[in-house]
Amino acid sequence: MAHQRVTSTLDGVKEPHSVSLKVLRLSRPSLSIQHPLPAPSPSPPPNLSLPAPSASLAYPSPTPSNFILSPLLTLPPAFGSAYVGETFSCTLCANNELPPLSQLAQTHTSPDIAASPNTKIISNITLSAEMKIPSTANPISLPLSGPSPSPPTSTSGEETPETQIISQTSLQKVLHFDLKEEGAHVLAVTVTYTEFSPSSPPRTRTFRKLYQFICKGCLVVRTKTGTLPSLKSTSSNRSSTSIPPTSPSEETKRRRSYALEAQIENITEDNPITLTLVHLTTTKGFNATSLNWEIVVSDSEKENGGGEAELEKPVLAPGDVRQVCFLVEEKDPEDERESVEGENENESEIVDGRLIFGVLSIGWRGAMGNKGFLSTGNLGIRVS
């Protein structure tokens, strides 16, 4: 987990806490780098000791593992990098640090260990988490998911409280947070529990830990818009039997069209990505047509009358740039005539002197399949 900041004790108790907290980031494994040894010559010298075959593995071990991918995958040794558009996930684990019952039995002669005056009992352990982001002063409360703490087994046959923990157990929760902006993020985790013993009344203890990490940008999107020659809307595509002819003024009515270009650059240092989605969501009054890799059809499928080919998604290595283009057209006046009155579906949106086309959405996957998604602001062209 990124570096840990100062731990604060909110209840003023100076003695050590009976519960510890561990925060670990959840991330996918990566391919391990292997450096195999050269194969021995056919007739090695008799006095030359050859290395064991397992020495050529990334993690030599005398006992083979049943997990076939163990020498191929490795977990990140550190926190790693967090990028805008990805989902930050981590696990929170509150561990009971009290000695197990076996150790208490060696120091107490009483058969009822739980009734000893020095035996501490912990109950009502709760976890809460907040995320502080650069753009807001108030932290964001994060929902936690995971199993509830299982009740301990009672040796006397009586029911015990569901949250009571006597021996070494743990409470584990998982949180997810969508990273939407660059800069320093602070994860604050608060642990609250009740501690009591037969010789002292119950007391509520609380402590809090802060974890800071830096979120970096993954993609840079540069856009450019331009006006294309207007398309004349005629009645050639309409059936003369179903729709009556229109007036000459309507026949010559033109609808404007535009070209929207975007350059997508991977600005990471060591994170190749695969583009899975580049989509322009238009506003009312416009239709968008993608002019990118989705429209390519293989020759064999053309001959067989098939649909679009299953194409390989574009891969952006660090520093690579991919250019995409969309044809943006005003909705056909025929569609406007057929639309329900009062909905204003074909009215264009103008904000601060700019004709708004829509929002560009980009989705990708990392080297090991981790998902990412981001969307731009409103894109359009300035009108005079």
DSSP helix fraction: under 10%
**Total domain count:** 2
Strand content: 35-45%
What's the total helix number?
A: 4
Q: What does this protein structure show overall?
A:
- It is built from four helices and 23 strands.
- The protein starts with a strand and ends with a strand.
- It has two domains: 3-28 and 75-216, no CATH class; 219-382.
- Strands 1, 2, 6, 8, 9, 12 and 13 form a seven-stranded mixed sheet that branches. Strands 16, 18, 20, 21, 22 and 23 form a six-stranded antiparallel sheet that branches. It has a four-stranded antiparallel sheet with strand order 3-7-11-10, with no helix packed on it.
- It has 384 residues and is mostly beta strands.
- The chain is elongated.
Q: What layout of secondary structure does this protein have?
A:
Blueprint: E1 3-4, E2 8-9, E3 19-25, E4 30-31, E5 73-74, E6 82-83, E7 87-96, H1 101-107, E8 121-132, E9 140-142, E10 144-145, E11 170-178, E12 183-197, E13 200-216, E14 219-232, H2 248-251, E15 254-266, E16 273-282, E17 286-290, H3 299-304, E18 315-316, E19 321-330, H4 333-338, E20 349-351, E21 354-365, E22 371-375, E23 379-382
Parallel strand pairs: 6-13
Antiparallel strand pairs: 1-13, 2-13, 3-7, 4-5, 7-11, 8-9, 8-12, 10-11, 12-13, 14-15, 15-19, 16-18, 16-21, 17-19, 20-21, 21-22, 21-23
Domain Trafficking protein particle complex subunit 13 N-terminal: 17-215
Organism: Sclerotinia nivalis
InterPro entries: TRAPPC13, TRAPPC13_M, TRAPPC13_N
